[in-house]
Design a protein that fits this description.
- By secondary structure, this protein is mainly alpha-helical.
- It has one domain.
- It has seven helices and two strands; from the N terminus they run ααβαααβαα.
- A two-stranded parallel sheet has the order 1-2.
- The longest helix has 17 residues.
- The radius of gyration is 16 Å and the shape is globular.
């Protein structure tokens, strides 16, 4: 049972934090196989937060609902993510960088389902 709960939790975190329509994954340069984007910008563009105001979700997820901050500051304890997220959000606004955050788990699930539906459209299947 513990493995089931742990697996489900990890799956939910990864899906809601990365597989949503607002996250964008750039295509590497075909010659160099490198992404021409700064590391920190790449972390912000490819990651989403969810339910950051919900202390129960934050406790249950071990702070992994603060995925943007987790990616930017992986060695800092998750107990500091709420304070850090304010600074990251302000910095993103200052530099006109989209900071992706869904206010609730349900809104993140809805964004995930919309994205899966979009990926399942026939014209999307041929673009990959």
């Amino acid at each position: 049972m513990i493995l089931f709960v742990t697996g489900l939790t990890i799956a939910v975190v990864f899906q809601l934090a990365h597989v949503v329509g607002d996250c964008h994954f750039p295509t590497p340069d075909p010659h160099s196989n490198k992404i021409e984007e700064e590391w920190a910008l790449h972390q912000v563009h490819t990651t989403a937060n969810f339910a950051t105001k919900n202390k129960i979700v934050s406790w249950f997820m071990g702070g992994l609902n603060f995925q943007v901050e987790h990616h930017l500051f992986p060695r800092i304890s998750h107990v500091h993510y709420p304070a850090i997220s304010k600074l990251v959000r302000e910095t993103c606004q200052e530099f006109n960088v989209k900071y992706i955050e869904y206010p609730t788990v349900l809104s993140a699930i809805a964004a995930h389902v919309r994205h899966l539906r979009e990926l399942g459209r026939p014209e999307m299947a041929t673009s990959y």
